[in-house]
Amino acid sequence: MLMNYNYHIWFKVCRAVRYKYHLSVNPVIVLNGSYCYMKAINKPFTITDLLRFTHYYSHNRMKAYIKVLMDLGYIVESGRYWKKNITYIISESGVNVICDMNRSYEIEIMKFCNEYNIEL
């Protein structure tokens, strides 16, 4: 049941971040996935690496979300290897988005638990 609560709260958390940073839900999810990848693997990522890590379904959509995040400055290109493979890292402003999302999550989980008398 906790997973259901988390899923419900995720959209409330995203609402605050979406409005503040002018992002839709999917780029926020991709930014969060890339942050988790960088924390877990500790190296720059390619779109293919991120697809495998997040189990997302479409390379073209992932590429579009990365482009949106790059245009806004939340993800930056860190280099190239081979011919076409571009590696990316999260910029400082991207980390700020993740930190705001974590703060928003803490607030929303407390509101939700207090409203419905749920103890964690």
The percentage helix is 55-70%
The unreliable regions are none
State the major sheet.
2 strands, antiparallel
Strand content: 5-15%
Question: Architecture, according to CATH?
Answer: Orthogonal Bundle
**The named CATH superfamily:** Winged helix-like DNA-binding domain superfamily/Winged helix DNA-binding domain
Strands in their spatial order, largest beta sheet: 1-2
Quantity of strands, as a count: 2
Question: What would you say this structure looks like, in words?
Answer:
The protein has 120 residues and is mainly alpha-helical. It is built from 5 helices and 2 strands, in the order ααααββα. The protein has a single domain, classed as Arc Repressor Mutant, subunit A (Orthogonal Bundle), CATH 1.10.10. It has helices spanning 2-21, 25-41, 47-54, 59-71, 92-115, and strands at residues 75-81, 85-90. It has a two-stranded antiparallel ribbon with strand order 1-2. A hairpin with a 3-residue loop joins strand 1 and strand 2 (85-90).
In short:
The chain is mainly alpha-helical. The chain is built from five helices and two strands. It has a single domain (2-115), classed as Arc Repressor Mutant, subunit A (Orthogonal Bundle).
